[in-house]
Amino acid sequence: MEFTLKTFIFYGFALMTVASALLVVTVRNIVHAAFSLMVTLFGVAGLYVFLQADFLAATQVIVYVGGILVLILFGVMMTSGRLEMRIHIERGQLLLGGAVALALFMLLLTVIANTPLWKNRIDDGIALPPTTEKIGKLILNGPFLLPFEVVSVLLLVALIGAALISRKEVRD
Amino acid sequence: MTLQHYLVISAILFTLGIFAVLTRRNAISILMGIELILNSCNLNFAAFSRFMTPADISGQIIAIFGIVLAAAEAAVFLAIILAIYREFGSIRPNEVDTLKG
């Protein structure tokens, strides 16, 4: 494989994603873990751009970085006193969890390397048109209309439920 | 870049997420692990959509639904964490054991 600027940027994003995800699961301070998660989410958004999924990349940045990460930081602020900031890990669990994760990773790598249908699928480099218009038509005027409505009702129900669970109980 | 590049990155993210869920003893760290798993899943959808059916972008729409579900899940998860913190004064999963026999 020739080494062009494109592959260089791709490996940059891949390294950024993997290294910061490693920090998320190893670092002891929970605020540092949350900020590493932000870098991971940006890296995944960059990989979406490489897959020519422009709308998906924008959604990833807006919803994950702008929404979910802020929620997580709020959760950290509201539940962790100074003592809770450091994450407690038990040694036996670390070994067992590491073994399970490693076995799972080996299994996934074997499947990825040996499935004939997935080999020789090379990025042809053809620039596709922007996907936003297509996605809008498929969701609002196509086969995804019903799933879209169902998922919007689900989101409404989840948010009402979250507000109900987290408010203070009124005793009288 | 081949499809397998993306699948390997996604497998690494998935494994790290599983590792975080199994070993961390803090509910918010477990939530971060779950977010890593969901991200690897969405990355797989987008990669398969790009490489297997380049003209059809249904895989990307499924990934968008995945992001919406992740947002709903994070909201409910944090609401439950807040309720648990108010009740038990801690968010370590080991210490929430009222139902334990």
Structural features:
heterodimer, A: 172 residues, mainly alpha, Four Helix Bundle (Hemerythrin (Met), subunit A), 72% helix, 0% strand, B: 101 residues, 3 helices, 77% helix, elongated
Brief digest:
The complex is a heterodimer of chains A (172) and B (101). Chain A is mainly α and 172 residues long. Helix content of chain A is 72%, strand content 0%.
The secondary-structure class of chain B comes to: mainly alpha
Biggest β-sheet description of chain B = none
SS summary, helix count of chain B: 3
Categorize the overall geometry of chain A: globular
Order of helices and strands of chain A: HHHHHH
Q: Under CATH, the topology of the largest domain in chain A is which?
A: Four Helix Bundle (Hemerythrin (Met), subunit A)
Oligomer: heterodimer
Write the layout of secondary structure elements.
The complex is a heterodimer of chains A (172) and B (101).
Chain A lengths: L4 H22 L3 H21 L3 H26 L11 H24 L17 H9 L4 H22 L6
Helix pairs in contact in A: 1-2, 2-3
Chain B lengths: L2 H21 L3 H26 L5 H31 L13
